[in-house]
Amino acid sequence: MQSENTWRLSEAEVEALLQEQKSDDLRRTTNAWPSSAMPNERPNKKERPMSDPINPNHYKKGEIEAIDAIKSALTEDEWRGFLKGTAIAYLWRLGHKDAVEQDARKTLWYVSWLAGKDPRG
Questions:
Q1: Which of 18, 22, 36, 50 has minimal Cβ neighbours within 10 Å of its Cβ?
Q2: Spatial CA neighbour of 113 closest among 91, 80, 88
Q3: What's the pLDDT tens digit per position in 18-27?
Q4: CB 101 within 8 A of CB 117
């Protein structure tokens, strides 16, 4: 009869297996992509300027805006939590990604929702 410890792996062996699996998964995923761009690379945005960086058109595809779909999928408490969390996220990154003014306006957009006012007018 084999001892209980025969099939146990050391932490180093587990870590090596996990790294190997991650490498295989990443290699399979990236090989399936149509281009060689890595997922964390942002596409060149010089093609055309965004008309409204606060509520851009890519959130308005189809018959319903993304924000309306999110709101309809959540309870009132979940909706308020989503708004609060998103506002905090924009404050947190203020000045580290987009222009300070743009992130501040995005924060206020979500705070307007929290105050019960649809900022779209």
A1: 36
A2: 80
A3: 777 666 666 6
A4: no
